[in-house]
């Protein structure tokens, strides 16, 4: 049986020079656009705001930014997937 492509459940968004797909997520902290970054496309090191630890290159993670019109490229944050899912229980820290 041939493989069927599933439709995206998100919406296309402008991400600087590239366009990608993001889904909308709601929480007590507001509406967010969230995009999953596969390990093969993670080419830089980022610092997760949830645990204040590095996300090494090559590690799959999520990028989240406010869903309102004021959200910009500068508002994007790269999170470990588990930290993003636990953000309701654990607020971002700044230890540096």
TrEMBL record:
Which domain of life does the protein's organism represent? Bacteria
List compositional bias (Basic residues) regions by residue number: 1-10
Q: From the UniProt entry, list the residue stretches annotated as the region Disordered.
A: 1-29
Q: Report what the protein is called.
A: ATP/GTP-binding protein
């Amino acid at each position: 049986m041939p493989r069927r492509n599933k439709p995206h459940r998100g919406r296309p968004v402008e991400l600087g020079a590239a366009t990608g797909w993001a889904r909308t997520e709601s929480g007590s902290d507001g509406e967010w656009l969230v995009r999953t970054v596969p390990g093969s496309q993670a080419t830089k090191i980022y610092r997760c705001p949830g645990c204040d630890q590095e996300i090494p290159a090559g590690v799959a993670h999520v990028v989240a930014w406010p869903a309102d019109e004021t959200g910009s490229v500068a508002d994007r944050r790269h999170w470990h997937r588990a930290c993003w899912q636990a953000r309701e229980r654990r607020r971002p820290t700044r230890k540096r």
